[in-house]
Amino acid sequence: MSTVMPAGSAPAATSESIGHYLGGDRVTNFGSGASIDVTSPLDGSALGTLVAATADDVDRAVATASEAFKLWGATPLKDRVQPLFRFKQLVEENIDELAAIVTAENGKTIAESEAGIRKGLEVVEYATSLPSLMRGGLLEVSRGVDCFERRDPLGVVAGITPFNFPAMVPMWMYPIAIACGNTFILKPSEQVPLTQLRMAELFKDAGLPDGVFNVVQGDRGTVEALLDHEGIAAAAFVGSTKVAKAVYDRGSNAGKRVLALGGAKNHLVVVPDADPDITARNVVSSATGCAGQRCMAASVLITVGDCDSILDKIAETMDRIVPGENMGAIINSAAKERIEGYISRAESDGATLKLDGRGATVAGKEGGHYVGATLIEGVDREHPAACDEIFGPVLTVLRVDTLDEALEIENSNPYGNAASIYTTSGATARYFEERASAGMIGINIGVPVPREPFSFGGWNDSKFGAGDITGDDGFAFWSKRKKITEKWSASGAKNWMS
Ligand code: NAD
């Protein structure tokens, strides 16, 4: 038996059972897998305990979503987007509460939490425009024969998401999937299980029928059960590259449509004609925003030629970033150790630490996990600090003489999420834009996240599967085309007026 929790109970910092959201209710005692304690990265305080869903539990969730699909899949599109309009309004009305939940479970600043929610809402806006976009076309292909197409939903679909954007990344998926007529099972990161429970309640308040949006908590076993389940038609994943590849392979082998976005190592290239102030502010914000835990974060800064004065400005600006004041926390102690390990290794390999964020603490929050902004210089391009995804507020500087060398470093890295250039020359920007091997290019922008309706997605080892995750590609991913060829001869038509 599952226990139903009262609406609005999800967000509170509590040591109680966190629960799942199924068939329009928040349920506890539903999972029968491992118990996972969830703590706040800000100060280590307990947020609750979740019990992971097993294959049997996933089976029950799929049954609930399948039942809901019978009605939802047959609901006209114009009616399907109505709850999304109301959901957007409710999210806006409750944004302070939602941002507080994101901050409590993820550790980012309130401003960052709010920005992530608002970015997610852009996808909701896009999804509400699907009645225009889904209109399709018709062509008379020969006399009396018309071809046209319709977009059908896939059925029950799933989303599996990472810890770093508890609101935004799931919102890349379900607004479009739900508007397309699918019913959705979300498996959030077990490190941030709370935000989407509150979103599910808001969806219910918005009039979304029960069972259309479900949240199943869990870990690797839960993900594998979702990927193996025959009742799930498609799965979108966002997380690290190693897991993205495994998820893509497993889900595809089980006959699903899969799109899996992975990790990143993003390069920012600075040339001597760059505007020093804009560049410094922008580079630092890219490297230290969300404490560097963004798949779009600047990780390597490549300076071309003499950029020493710009570099000095970057170091000065970065030195003003203070954990607990204008930078948030690191998700857990293992991540803090990993990040500090990269810094220590660079130091022992002879690097200069222009800024060293190891050992950072925040007064009164000794149980939290913090790393200060770090600027590493003097490693070569093969060093782990210059090649691996560190996923913390660490920027590694490489110096080269030509833009082609910078491009060669960027393009030989296996990832391909984002790459940016800072310049005041349109020609230089164009040269870079045409040659950089990444899905999202920034010109004087360090976090070049495309705004809707442009779609989000990287290249190379930053994504497995075809298409991007939002925008028109999201709509293509969450629906299937049916092509209809129809023949009606006009000869023999009755003329009723005669
Ligand atoms: P992660 O890969 O550890 O976890 C992501 C999800 O997969 C979670 O829900 C987790 O429960 C599940 N999972 C973990 N291990 C698994 C396994 N072995 N098999 C099946 N499922 C498993 O990622 P994370 O640490 O939560 O998030 C950070 C990573 O996500 C970074 O690498 C970051 O670059 C990436 N990311 C990428 C994008 C993008 O758009 N490309 C966006 C956000 C985050």
Structure report:
Residues 34-483 form the Aldehyde dehydrogenase domain. Keywords: NAD, Oxidoreductase. GO terms for molecular function: methylmalonate-semialdehyde dehydrogenase (acylating, NAD) activity. Its EC number is 1.2.1.27. It comes from Stratiformator vulcanicus. The protein is α/β, with parallel strands linked by helices. It folds into two domains: 20-263 and 458-482, Aldehyde Dehydrogenase, Chain A, domain 1 (3-Layer(aba) Sandwich), CATH 3.40.605; 266-443, Aldehyde Dehydrogenase, Chain A, domain 2 (3-Layer(aba) Sandwich), CATH 3.40.309. Helices cover 37% and strands 21% of the residues. The chain has 17 helices and 21 strands. The protein has helices spanning 55-72, 77-80, 82-93, 95-106, 110-128, 130-133, 168-179, 195-205, 220-228, 241-253, 276-288, 308-319, 333-348, 384-387, 403-412, 426-435, 471-477, and strands spanning 3-5, 20-22, 25-28, 35-39, 46-51, 138-142, 145-153, 156-160, 183-187, 213-215, 232-238, 257-261, 266-270, 298-304, 352-355, 374-377, 394-400, 418-422, 440-443, 463-464, 479-487. A seven-stranded mixed beta sheet has the order 15-16-17-14-13-18-19, sandwiched between helices. The chain has a six-stranded mixed beta sheet with strand order 10-9-8-11-12-20, sandwiched between helices. A three-stranded antiparallel beta sheet has the order 1-3-2. Helix 3 (82-93) packs antiparallel against helix 5, helix 4 (95-106) crosses helix 5 (110-128) and helix 5 (110-128) runs parallel beside helix 7 (168-179). The longest helix has 19 residues, at 110-128. The radius of gyration is 24 Å and the shape is globular. The model is unreliable at 1-14 (pLDDT under 50). The structure holds nicotinamide-adenine-dinucleotide (NAD). Nicotinamide-adenine-dinucleotide binds at residues 160-165, 169, 187, 189-190, 219-220, 223, 238-240, 243, 246-247, 261-264, 295, 389, 391, 417, 458, 462.
